[in-house]
Amino acid sequence: MNLRGHFTPGPEFGETLRAGARRAHETGEVDAASLEALRRSGLLGMMVHEDHGGWGYPPATANTVIEAVAADNPSIAIMLYLHCAVVVRIEQYGTEAQKKHWLPRVARGGELVASAWSEPGSTADKRSLSTTAQRDTAGGWEIKGGKTFSTSATVADFFIVLVQLPAGTETAHATGPTYGGSDQALFLVEAAAPGVQVPPGALDMAGMRGSGTGMVQFQDVTVAESNLLCSGSATTEAIQLPHRLGLTLGAVSVGLAQAAHETALGHARDRGLFGEPRFQRQLASTEIAVRSARAAVRDLTTGPADDRVLRAYCVKVFASETGETVCGTVRGLLGSAGYLQAHEINRISHDAEAVTHMGPPTHLCLDLIAGRWDPAPGPDR
């Protein structure tokens, strides 16, 4: 993969990620060698504009990179995807001062940003939050609350934090399924800021075990006005921005499906099964599935922009379900070998399932898709 001359991942990069994926699945923690390889690669700055030291990759190229990383190490890929989703929000909604402060740190310093959005007991649509931001007497903000299932939390350098604003600040009342609310805001907060507490251990998850997913507590964290990225109606726009651009979590699912397909191919080579018609047909079906999901991901950045958010939800559901389906097919092809706990297909399968629960989760995507249907009767046919 040669990407505009900036970064050509050699065999050692992929080998580091693959070995790290296996170690992380055993330990349940971020693999240090894989994370260091990611920081040194420059990929954390791939969507930062060249003016701020990045590569300026468009979403289509970023999706291709994320897919390739996911085929080797899905946990690192999910960290990279969510990091890029924050980067594009800073590019779109940040002031010039904010861009000059945060983006070079990412592009030149290899710093990693995490999203702190989900909360214990809150709904997937993020419309009801207990984490709040209140004005303080100095003109800044005081953030209080806690977040959970924050990918990269245990190793992030700073966070983008979704908070509820004081009552009466909403600018619009949403009807039907939405993602986030206009009475909310997004802040950029240093991981080392006083009052930010991140438990050292990641959550003991079944999949994406090397993603550093954990909890973050904000105990009376004071930040300046300059840490406010956006508020009001811009918050819901910012939440959906990656989808509007065509940057998609579906790329991770495609990489996982590709890894599962290649696992089946390797099994067939080792066992001399390419001559068996049943095995050939099943391999053909998994290749078709991978290619179809990849085409759907690519279509996001080439098709019309006016319905891209809706299509992004469709692609997320389709790609994540494809990942799970391909893993299931491959496990069946492997026979008894596929049911050994240590087999790679089980790690890949757990990671593929995890994507269906990541924001927006599949059930919320379906609600958001259905909520856009026009109840008015259509033309007679």
Describe this structure in words.
The chain has 381 residues and is an alpha+beta fold. It folds into three domains: 11-111, Acyl-CoA dehydrogenase/oxidase, N-terminal domain (Butyryl-Coa Dehydrogenase, subunit A, domain 1); 114-232, Butyryl-CoA Dehydrogenase, subunit A, domain 2; 248-370, Up-down Bundle (Butyryl-CoA Dehydrogenase, subunit A, domain 3), CATH 1.20.140. It has helices at 11-27, 32-41, 59-72, 74-93, 96-107, 233-245, 250-271, 277-302, 308-334, 344-356, 362-370, and strands spanning 113-116, 132-135, 141-150, 158-164, 184-190, 196-197, 214-223, 228-231. The strands form two sheets. The chain has a four-stranded mixed sheet with strand order 1-4-5-8, covered by helices on one side. Strands 2-3-7-6 form a four-stranded antiparallel sheet, with no helix packed on it. Strand 2 and strand 3 (141-150) form a beta hairpin. Helix 3 packs antiparallel against helix 4 (74-93), helix 7 runs antiparallel to helix 10 and helix 9 (308-334) packs antiparallel against helix 11 (362-370). The N and C termini lie far apart (49 Å).
